[in-house]
Amino acid sequence: MTHPRPGVARKVVVLxxxxxxxxxxxxxxxxxxxxVEILALTAGRNxxxxxxxxxxxxxxxxxxxxxxxxxxxRERLAGSGVRAAAGAxxxxxxxxxxxxxxxSAIVGAxxxxxxxxxxxxxxxxxxxNKESLVCAGPALLAIAREAGGSVIPVDSxxxxxxxxxxxxxxxxxxxxxxxxxxxxxxxxDKAAMAKATPEEAVAHxxxxxxxxxxxxxxxxxxxGLEMIEASYLFxxxxxxxxxxxxxxxxxxxxxxxxxxxxxxxxxxxDMRSPISxxxxxxxxxxxxxxxLDLAAYGQLTFEAPDLDRFPSIAIAREAxxxxxxxxxxxxxxxxxxxxxxxxxQIGFLDIARAVxxxxxxxNGLGELADSVGDALDSxxxxxxxxxxxxxxVVGQNRI
Length: 399
Ligand SMILES: NC(=O)C1=CN([C@@H]2O[C@H](COP(=O)(O)OP(=O)(O)OC[C@H]3O[C@@H](n4cnc5c(N)ncnc54)[C@H](OP(=O)(O)O)[C@@H]3O)[C@@H](O)[C@H]2O)C=CC1
Ligand SMILES: CC(=O)[C@@H](O)[C@H](O)COP(=O)(O)O
Ligand SMILES: [Mn+2]
Hints:
- By secondary structure, the chain is an alpha/beta fold.
- It is 47% helix and 15% strand.
- It starts with 9 loop residues before the first strand and ends with a helix.
C-alpha cells in the first residue's frame, strides 16, 4: 500500500469526478494543497464539467462513459494536451493506469467493473461507490488484498468505523452501530410519504449528494446498502450491525466493545473529511476543515428506526441472509425503482415494494444462487436479470 510521502506527488485517478464526491475530492486537493499528479478523470455524460476539470487539472486522459459525447469532449480539450476517451472499457482502463490512489465515486453498479480494475493494480482504493461492495464485496476485497492494495471506505459511517476500530481488539467488538439521519421523511406519516415528489425526496436535511443516494437516504435503503457494506468491510454478521437514527449527522457511527465501552467518530457533515482520511491514512491531512461546534448544536438526539415506514433496512437484512446474488439483485432492483421514481413513473413507497417484489420473484425462480466463476461476470449476470424483473415489477406499479 502506497502512503503519501512528503514532497512526492501521488498518482491519482478520480472515477466519477463530476459528481458530488468527485467534486469534493478535487476541492480537497486544492484546500489541502497536496501534491497530486492526476492520471485520469472520468464522468458519465457531463462533458462540460469534465472538460472544465480536465483543463484545470491536466490529467493524461479524460474519459466520458457516453460515447456520443466524445466529439464534444475532443473539441473542448483540443490543444490542451489532455487525451479524450469514451466508453465503459475506457473508464476501466483509466482505473487501471497504475495510480497510487483511486477515488471510486461512480454511482451505482456501473462502478463495479472500474473499481475491480483498480483493485487488480494494487492501488489504494478510496471507496465511495458502496454499490460495488454490495454487488461483489468479498471478491473485491480479496482481489485488492491479493494485489497488495487496500480499500479504504469513504462512506461517512464506514470511515467512522474504520477510524475507531481497534484492530488488536477485533474479537471484542460486540456491535457496529450505523447512524442514519432518517432522511427528509423522518417525521412524515405514510399517507404523506405515498405522495412525496422527487424534489422532496432529494432534499436531504444534512448532506448535499447526488440524486440516487439522496433518494436512498429518503427510503433508508441507503442504510440497508450500508449495512451490507459494513458486513463485508468489517467481516461482521448482520446480527451485530445496528442502525440508530441520529438526525443531526454529527456522530458518523460507533463501535461497541465487549467491555461496555463504545467509541464514536464525530464531525460536521462534510464529505471532504472522510475523503481526507482515505487519502492520508494512517496520517492526517491539514486543511481548513470547519471544526465541530458542539455547543452550537446544543443537543444530539437519537431514535429507533421505524421499519414499517422504512422497510428497506429489513429488506437488506433479508438479502444478506439469503446471500449468493441477493445483495446484487437487491441493488439492481433498487437502481431501477429509484430511476422510475425520479422519472415520476412510480410513487415513493413503490420503491421498496418493487425491490422486495423483485427479490421475492428471483428467489422463487432460483435466480439468487451462490455465484460461480468470475465475480464481475456473475454479479453482472445477476444485475441484468434483476433489472429485467424489476422493470416488470415497476411496470405493474406504474402510476
Ligand atoms: N455524495 C455523497 O455525499 C456520498 C456518496 N456516496 C456514494 O458515492 C457514489 C457517488 O455518489 P455521488 O457523488 O453523490 O453521485 P453523483 O450522482 O453526484 O455522481 C456520480 C458520478 O458518477 C458518474 N457516472 C454516472 N453514471 C456513470 C456511468 N454509467 N459510467 C461512468 N460514470 C458514471 C457521474 O457522471 P455525470 O456527472 O457525467 O453524470 C458522476 O461523475 C455513490 O455510490 C454514492 O452512494 C457515499 C457516501 C456519501
Ligand atoms: C454522507 C453519507 O455517508 C451518506 O451515505 C449519508 O449517510 C446519507 O445520510 P443518511 O444517514 O440519511 O442515509
Ligand atoms: Mn453514508
